[in-house]
Amino acid sequence: MDHTIALIQRSHEGDEKARAQLVEENTGLVWCIVKRFYNRGVEAEDLFQVGSIGLLKAIDKFDMSFDVKFSTYAVPMISGEIKRFLRDDGMIKVSRSLKELAYKAYLCQERLQEKWGRDPTVAEIAGELGVETEELTQALDASGEIESLHKPIYQKEGQEVRLMDKLKEKEGEEEQILNHLLLKQLLAYLDKEERRLIYLRYFANQTQTQVGDTLGISQVQVSRMEKKILKNLRERI
User: Fold this and answer.
1) Which of 76, 195, 206, 235, CA to CA, is 20 to 30 A from 146?
2) For the chain, which residues make up each domain, given as ranges?
């Protein structure tokens, strides 16, 4: 039986030492995920403690019948716990009026940057909005405490804008961790040439043409192989 699975089974049977050993052995995994949430206005140690709660939940909820490694299952549990903390508990509450002013300042700053070709000063933004510089500074300082991407930065008449809505959409880094862990596990089912193709495409980030040059086959052949491999992997998942 796999070492980790054996520990989980003992933990489920009430063995606290096995549970503690699992936490200790997965400390590196928690820190790996915590690093993705740095610079959110929360101490790294606090994030680690929250992530450890997610790890404990993963240990307690892991089903032995899951055909997946424990680390693959634990990653979204840990990151989800940290996300909930940042969204619900970890931030200072800011009044709606300050949020609204900070959001207006954000839009004004973008407009003036485009118009003037430079970053406007706080005083210039305050002048455009018709507010005192001190009031705008207070609003900007307060909104700076809202680090969670899920926190609304402006809300009016039932419509809210979240910080994540103002960012370019891209795959979450924690999802990339999960995908790589799962893909690494699935690679064991492939033969040497198939593993090499997947490595070049998804780890070395090569194009199909570049992979074809490396393997000595055409781009069309690479495309067909890749589709076939991914289809087989999806079926295994």
Assistant:
1) 76
2) 3-89, 96-166, 190-236
Distance CA 203, CA 214 (A): 15
Q: Give yes or no on whether 3-89 and 96-166 have one common fold.
A: no
For the stretch 4-23, what's the b/e string if a residue is b when 16 or more beta carbons lie within 10 angstroms of its beta carbon?
beebbebbbeeeeebbebbe
d(CA 179, CA 186): 10
Q: What distance in Å separates the CA atoms of residue 219 and residue 58, rounded to the nearest whole number?
A: 42
- pLDDT, tens digit (0-9, with 9 covering 90-100), for 49-79: 999 998 999 899 888 776 678 888 888 889 8
Task: Report the candidate in 145, 134, 180 with the shortest Cα–Cα distance to residue 39.
Answer: 145
Q: What is the CATH number of domain 190-236?
A: 1.10.10
Distance CA 27, CA 59 (A): 13
**Model-level pTM?**
0.42
Beta strand residue intervals within 129-185, DSSP E: 152-156, 159-162
**CATH 1.10.10.60 matches 96-166:** no
User: Which tokens hold the place of 125?
Assistant: 């933004």
3-89 is classed CATH 1.20.120.1810: yes
Reported as a single tens digit per residue, the pLDDT across 9-63 is 999 999 989 999 999 999 998 998 888 888 777 788 888 999 999 899 989 988 8
CA atoms of 13 and 3, how far apart (whole Å): 16
